[in-house]
Amino acid sequence: NLFPLISTGEPREQIFRMTGPGADQDPKGLFTIDMNSGAVSVSRSVDREATDSYQLEVSTTDYSGNLIEGPQVFRINVIDQNDNRPIFKEPQYTGEVLEGSPTGTTVMTMTAFDADDPNTDNAVLRYNIVKQSPDKPSPNMFYIDAERGDIVTVIAPTLLDRETLPTTTYELEIMAKDMAGSEVGLTGTTTATITITDKNDHAPEFTHPLFEAHVYEGSTGVVVNLTVDDRDDPATAAWRAMYSIISGDPTQSFEIQTNPDNNEGMLSVVKPLNYEASEFLSLLIKVENEDPLVPDVGYGPSSTATVHVRVEDINEGPVFFPDPLIVTRMENIPVGSFVASLNATDPDILEKQSIRYAVLQDPAGWLSVNPVRGTVNTSASLDRESPYVYDNKYTAVFIATDNGTPPATGTGTLIIHLEDYNDNAPYVLPSVARVCEDTYDVTVAVVGGWDKDLPPNAAPFKIELGTQPDLDKTWNVTRVNSTHSQIRLLRSLKKDNYQLPLLITDSGVPPLSNNTEVKVQVCICNKNRMHCSSAHSHRARFLVPLATLLLTLLCKYIATNSHNNRKLWFFVCFLFSPHPVKLSSFSLLCHSFFVPLVLCFSV
Fold it and tell me: Where is the Cadherin domain (predicted)?
């Protein structure tokens, strides 16, 4: 029974009614009112953390429901009880503190929440460290501010040394208690893990003041692993080592890389060493950390070490000089001509060894070498136009072998720059032209001269008619430029194939000439179409009567001497048999009489 609400002083016939959240609205039935007396009661437990107050309206009516008084507003406030424990925001807290930090350094702040009324002691929290694990070197290395929850260091900076502490991780059990920490307060706990982080307060030190290495001359790779000790936290910049060569490597033949797994320095030879130049080297090596040291710590003598490198001798192969050797020679020089003299020396100057030369690669087979003197001579004619020559250069490779144990070899390249000699006659293109019959004084074709040689052994070309009589009555050749000439037909010809003999001459000294032919097809032209004769030329027709006579006599001879002239018959069969080479006028004539020859032999 909470309280009576409305009283008139004298009895009246009235009914009390109450509306609002907690009465006839959710949560319904939490509060009830006596309809006769107006006493308000609570029917079940209330939770301040769910709803801290309720606002209701009360009125009175007669028995017929007519309003007599009200509605009157009143508020019900729920008084807080300490029924909620403190709860930390995180189930587990983590923090870090640098080793050597001064006393009073804040590590982290703990925060808990209490759902009770913040205006009462029910929600006033106090923090406390219940337990520290491990408890060495002191069980009270840290302190927590009871009101703010700040965790700070208590231990002296000299004792907060990561390298001397029994562990680098400490675990604190933190308790928060409400009721301002009184004995009747409720509590909540959590765990705080604190890691003592490293600072670069220890310089790396070599495990030995002297390291020794052996390496064969001419080889590369790792020759020795340099080991160091560093008491700082592994895998941090305060622990990772950087190595440098202070002295003893003027040619920069060595380098050092750090092994990321074990922090060792891998000393490698990056430029092959020469035993004959130096049998022994002494290197001074320094090691540092990636992070700088703290101001009160420096690098001492143990941060440097000496490495003695002994170079082992091996039998080295001969070395050609120069490589490549470049010479210039004229093509087509006589076989046996001198080309070059190879020069290979043995780097093993402390040993007297002989060298022998041999050809290793000679694509065209043009060269030979004296095995003792190294002189190179031609064994075949040098041809600048050969497919083995690129950009006028022919390349061969030679090998030199010493008599060491075991023998060693070296290779050298000879490049011969070939000068051009006028050894290729020029030729004419195109070799076929067409013209309509009954036309004259027209240009049949413009032909050009071509030459495998180079200027001045090529153009300008002189193209003229052959020496056959009366050609100039039908044909005319005039120069267009230094490489081309035009062929003109002076009188009309009938449909047929004509072989026009030409003479082309280059500009070499001495010049080369070539008797060649251009086949001119005289065709019947109508409606933009040309009807030309077959491939047989006009000249071949005059050979038919002569060939017929010769074949008749040949048949009679074979028939009368068939037993003694089998070889002759097989020669004739070969001569007149079909051949895949482009057919000349005479071969066409022979093929046309192949069948008659077979019939003749059968007789």
Answer: 16-88, 89-206, 223-320, 321-428, 451-547
Distance, in Å, from the CA atom of 411 to the CA atom of 413, rounded to the nearest integer, reads: 7
Rounded distance between C-alpha atoms, residue 520 and residue 248, angstroms: 84
Tokens of 110: 């703990």
Residue 561: the pLDDT is: 54
Q: Report the SS3 class of residue 594.
A: helix
Is pTM beyond 0.70? Reply is: no
Instruction: Give 88's Cβ-side CA count (13 Å radius).
Output: 20
Q: How many C-beta atoms lie closer than 10 Å to residue 452's C-beta?
A: 15
Q: Residue 57's closest CA among 17, 8, 102?
A: 17
Q: Which residues pair with 169 in a beta bridge?
A: 195
517-530 pLDDT, tens digit each? 999 999 998 888 88
Q: How many residues does the chain have?
A: 603
Structure tokens at 504: 């082309």
Q: Are the CB atoms for 200 and 291 separated by under 8 Å?
A: yes
SS (H, E, C) 213-247: EEEECCCCEEEEEECEECCCCCCCCCCCEEEEEEE
Measured CA to CA, the distance from residue 414 to residue 430 in angstroms comes to 40
Rounded CA separation 13/511 (Å): 153
Q: Tell me the backbone φ, ψ of residue 546, rounded to 5 degrees.
A: -65, -40
Kind plus residue range of the DSSP H or E element containing 221: strand 221-226
Q: List pLDDT tens digits, range 545-556.
A: 444 455 555 545
